[in-house]
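Our preliminary data section would be incomplete without showing what the modeling component actually yields. Below, a chain of 205 amino acids is followed by its predicted structure, encoded as tokens that our downstream tools consume directly.
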Amino acid sequence: MRKNPISEEAVVIRGKNLVLTDAIKNYVMEKLQAIEVFGDKHIEAVINLDIQKLDHCIDVLYKFDHTQVKVHASTKDLYSAIDKVFDRLQAKLRKYKTRLQHHHGKPLQYIDINVNVIKRPEEELIEELNEDIEAENMHSLEELYKPHEIVSKETRVLKTLKTEEAMMKMDLSNDQFMVFRAEEDQKIKVIYRRDDMNYGLIEPE
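Predicted structure:
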């Protein structure tokens, strides 16, 4: 275990029926940072201090990873109640660690690994496996080199445009290309979007 790395930004301290002075806040933070933790965990805490009749009551919600620990303590004296609640918090965390280690049967830094030993196949099985692999490779090659097909058709109106107008329409659309009749020479041309975000123009001789 190591000392608690919790920062003040991750701590909320609330007071009810009492004046929450800087001295009280500092004492709570001192006790909280003295809590021993294990592992590198993001920690948050919410501490509620309250006076009910003659008792000083402290409730702590302590959060790390996906785990929440709640503890409560009350005494006639505020500071002794703070001591008591953080003693209980430390005891709960140690108990949690012990149970976790007992559940795994070893220290937390170790992980069980199952090793499977595969028996060497017989020659017939090896030959069968090789045939399956060869057939799979052939299928992959056929899929890779099979002729391309036309999977969709679309009909569009052939517009007569100036080349500048065609560029403007491409700017406003997400199309990769557009076929149009050039107003300048009445030729069918194709304007397309280049990888550098400029346009290319294909026109017949």
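The chain has two domains: 2-104, 159-202. The beta strands are 2-3, 11-16, 36-37, 43-52, 55-64, 67-75, 159-161, 177-182, 188-193, 199-202. Preliminary results of this kind motivate Aim 1 of the renewal.
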